[in-house]
Write a structure and sequence with these properties.
The chain is α/β, with parallel strands linked by helices. It has one domain: 5'-nuclease (Rossmann fold, 3-Layer(aba) Sandwich). It is built from eight helices and five strands. The two termini are 13 Å apart.
Amino acid sequence: MRIYLDISCLNRPFDDQTQLRIRLESETIIFILKNFNLPQWEWISSEILQLELEHLPVVEMKEHLLLLASRAHYVVRLQQKEAKRAQQLKRMGFNAFDALHIACAESGNVDIFLTCDKKLLEQTTQVSDKLNLSIVNPLWLLEVI
């Protein structure tokens, strides 16, 4: 299974864990990250994710997440194909970073794109037939297992 994690997933374990949903998402993401050691799980990342991580304001968190992201099996490079697709996605209403993430995930032929971003999840339901992948909350894994 080829999985793409956006920055909201990587940040989730650092969020306030007093809310049950956030705690469950955090535990699920940690489980997914651990399972990237299995041969049947593949972490697909992108230059866009690395760029976002490099701009995190908390130095310790940034360093930790950049190190973690370096474990991705494959990093999609942003090229003309991805930039063109991102422009199409922006016209559908996605913000620039989300559009670039989706374009890179599509280029990486991911099976699933994971995000904790409620707004992004809502947007994708409206245009899911125009996307070449499924975008879901990490808690999707609970349905699969």
